[in-house]
Amino acid sequence: MMALTNRYDFVLVFDVKDGNPNGDPDAGNLPRLDAESGHGLVTDVSLKRKVRNFVGLVKGEEPPFEIYVKEKAVLNRTHERAYVSVGAEDELKGEDKKRKGKSDTVSKARDWMCANFFDVRTFGAVMSTGVNCGQVRGPVQLTFARSVDPVVALEHSITRMAVATEAEAEKQEGDNRTMGRKHTVPYGIYVAHGFVSSFLARQTGFGDDDLELLWQSLEHMFEHDRSAARGEMSTRGLYVFKHDSELGNAHAHDLFDRIRIARKPEAEVPRSFADYAVSIDDAALPAGVSLQRRVG
């Protein structure tokens, strides 16, 4: 796998229609909002989850593309696998498995985790809890996604024509309908920013093949993450700024400002992507920077 020798900054644009892009469990699963401005939010954790799911789907959870953070995973068992694989199973013996491993063992275990788990070498991980495999700072970082305009969080009453238990059926007196709530955003277009560091990539073994897989994930992750709760979600833009140097040839914020998304004047109440205009200022990019339009 070829090592990265360039810095990358990227802009991810996606939208949601009649769905909940990222519910807040502390607010009854309402769509996340900026309380002051009313703009919608989607956390970086939510976006990384979708990338992990896509990679696990297309790569079949096989090394070197296993997924470390996944549903029902017991992380310490994975750490124990690392110790066994590097020949340090003796350090797992005894009652105190939470003690720190030897410095050399931790280093080898960390390298093994990076080599076998895509999300560890991409996003990093804290693996020092329980059986100690160290910590990894990932070369790929994402921001929260924020909607271009304020969004409206709607709450809908729904009914289920069934009950779960006999006791519930008796309470309904012959009518098995039960009530529930569903939260949606009628429409919102969101923008997230991302960064790829070649210096950190060398430390984790994140290479060109991993980078291409990351781009594919961001392009297609919503196509394989459908659910009734999320409505219609689609990647509408993926714009990658590639720097000739590892340190970078321009400030990231200056490059991000070149991607502008604005609601069209005639669209008083936007309800589709067609209600927005995307403009890209690529006429005079800074020397040493090129723009790759993966989507859009």
Give a written overview of the molecule:
Helix content is 26%, strand content 30%. The chain has one domain (8-155, 182-295). The chain has eight helices and 14 strands. It is flat. The protein starts with 7 loop residues before the first strand and ends with a strand. Helix 1 (44-59) packs across helix 7 (208-220) and helix 2 (75-85) packs across helix 3 (103-116). The mean pLDDT is 93. Strands 1, 4, 7, 8, 9, 10, 11 and 14 form an eight-stranded antiparallel β-sheet that branches. Strands 2-3 form a two-stranded antiparallel ribbon.
Give a quick summary of the entry:
The protein has 296 residues and is α+β, with helices and mostly antiparallel strands. It contains eight helices and 14 strands. It has one domain (8-155, 182-295).
Write the layout of secondary structure elements.
Layout (H helix, E strand, L loop, with lengths): L7 E12 L3 E2 L5 E2 L7 E4 L1 H16 L15 H11 L17 H14 L1 H6 E3 L8 E3 L2 E3 L2 E6 L3 E7 L5 H6 L6 E19 L1 H7 L3 H13 L11 E12 L8 H5 L2 E5 L12 E5 L8 E7 L1
Antiparallel strand pairs: 1-10, 1-11, 2-3, 4-8, 5-6, 7-10, 8-10, 9-10, 11-14, 12-13
Helix pairs in contact: 1-7, 2-3
